[in-house]
Design goal:
It is a single chain. The chain has 457 residues and is an alpha+beta fold. It has 3 domains: 220 residues, Elongation Factor Tu (Ef-tu), domain 3 (Beta Barrel); 56 residues, OB fold (Dihydrolipoamide Acetyltransferase, E2P) (Beta Barrel); 75 residues, Helix Hairpins (Orthogonal Bundle), CATH 1.10.287. It has 10 helices and 21 strands. Strands 1, 14, 15, 16, 19 and 20 form a 6-stranded mixed sheet that branches. Strands 2-9-12-11-10-13 form a 6-stranded antiparallel β-barrel. The protein has a 4-stranded antiparallel sheet with strand order 6-5-3-8. A hairpin with a 3-residue loop joins strand 17 and strand 18. The termini are far apart.
Length: 457
Amino acid sequence: MGYDEPSSKLYGAVYETEPVAPRRRSRTRMIILGVVALGVGGYLATHQDAVTKLTSMVSGGPEAGAGGPAGGGRAGRGGGAAPVRIATARVGDVPVAANTLGTVLANSMVTIKSQVDGPLVEAAFKEGQMVKKGDLLFRIDPAPFEAALRQAQATVARDQAQLASAQADADRAVMLSERGIVSAQQRDQLVANAKALAATIDADKAAVERSALNLGYTTIRAPVNGKTGAYIVYPGNQVRANDQTGLITIAEIQPVKIAFNLPQGDLPLLQARLAEGNLMAGVVARSDVASAQAVDDQQEMQIPVKVNFIGNAVDDRTGTIELRATFDNPDLRLVPGELVDVSIQLDTLKQVTVLPREAVNVGQNQSYVFVLDDENKAQMRPVRVLYQNQVITAVANGVIKSGDRVVIDGQLRLTPGARTTITQAPGDAAIQASPAAADNAAGNNAGQGRRAGRRGG
């Protein structure tokens, strides 16, 4: 028996691998990086201006290409003066207004329905026409009701003739009964017949009245003054009494009501002014707002409307209470369902400091304002906001005085004591000139209908 070689020797070539030379990539990379570093260092050593530009770019200086003032950086970091825009504080009365959206409601909305059955033969108006109370609207075929009235009248005449005969028999029976000729029973029977016929005649007369009433229902007249809507039923159709859809609707739009809601926190002021009889609201149609963007005094667009209703309960879902005002609407400019802007004056702050809204900044603990001193250095002053709308802010007196120059743009670059440079826009020159000019720029008419206001704490 021969000796076999182990399989590991027979197939050794399958498992053997050639040795691989060690990689030198890491060492090569380090050499390349060192050469690059030496080159950059040599360049910077011979070009000092490049070092200056690089340092300025990192620190945010003027060489960074931001176009800032000479000296670079934020004004609060010891750099140059920060550009700001300013306005002048003033002292005056500020009306406190609440602003919201309102909905125009018809003073009354009536659905005209038929009270009898029959064919509709005539409509005496056009759709959308203004009608007055008592004007003819529809006519239903009266012929069946005229016939029913004549029949009821004939029944009355027949029963009256029978009553006359029965009454005569009853009278004779009473006379003969006294003589002993007619028994008391016969007498009582004839008297009862006469009384029954008299009651029948009363019923017949009531039937006549009912027939006449139904005949009158064939002519339908307007119950209120107002504007008609579109036809619900056209002439030629058969109508039924008290059909749910009705024949047409009439909206009373002279006057109209304007319904709106205000927060329940305003309720004490609202009730006090309503008791005084001078609770007024300014109403502006939203179409008027869109078409009058170029009007300077938007307050002239307001329609003064007297508020004459405050709801009897606060909506627990929204925390608001409903109010309604009545407007005569002489030119029919307001239409039921239309949205309007409503501004209602709640109070007037007497002789408070007034600033542009942009001047007040909200801090972590309280609001503050930057005021410029005689050297145009910014001074931070905390303020307590009493009222604010989209244009002006009223703050408590004492910290800011009338004539103080307050920063309205550029506050983000300021710190207390920072130097500033005033860069007013061409239209802002008047703001800096005098408090009277500042009134115009700050929005002297604080209670305008489209500007939302809020009370400060």
